[in-house]
Amino acid sequence: MKIDVRARNHVTEIGRGERVLVLAHGFGCDQRIWRFVAADLARDHRIVLFDYVGSGRSDLRAWTPQRYGSLQGYKLDMIEVLEALRHEQVVLIGHSISGSIGALASIARPELFERLIMVGPSPCFINDGDYVGGFERQDVMDMLDLMDRNMVGWADMLAPLVVKTTVWPERVAEMRENLCAGDPAIVRRFAEVVFTSDIRQHLPDIPVPVLIMQCADDAVAPLSVGDYLQRHIPRARLNRMAATGHCPHLSHPDETIALIRDELRRPRRAARP
Question: Which of 103, 123, 168, 222 has its CA 20 to 30 A from that of 129?
Answer without folding.
Answer: 103
